[in-house]
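To whoever is on call:

I kicked off a structure prediction for a single chain this morning and the downstream step that reads the tokens threw a length-mismatch warning. I double-checked the sequence; it's 136 residues and nothing unusual in it as far as I can see. Pasting both halves so you can look.
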Amino acid sequence: MKRKATAVWNGSGKEGSGTVTTQSTVLSNTQYSYKSRFEEGVGTNPEELIAAAHAGCFAMKLSFVLGAAGFTPDSLDVTCTVNLEDGAIRQSHLALKARVPGISESVFQESVADAKENCPISKSLTAEISVEAELV
């Protein structure tokens, strides 16, 4: 399976701007800039997109892991926060609130650990990955 996205940048690093478009067109000429990346400007940025990818990948992988253990989650609410330091993403923190009927805390935590280690985005990151998981 291959997926693609396109970025177009115009101008200098600080004063220029760009757009990103994904194969699915969910993002279509979506604006990004120095301000949206390093300040509080309008638009997206690469780190935000990595955080979204990690949250989505982890949630889906956890759903598969839970299914293999005989459980179907009602909901998996994941927030991912990435930390950019010294020009690299150094940390990715996943905060999970899950509704999984009938699961024990130990099976839940084992499933979370499996998903953390084995989702494709986790495997792709060299950053420290942490998870805070709570059954609600």
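Update from on-call: the warning came from a stale cache, not from the record. Cleared it. Sanity check on the structure: The radius of gyration is 17 Å.
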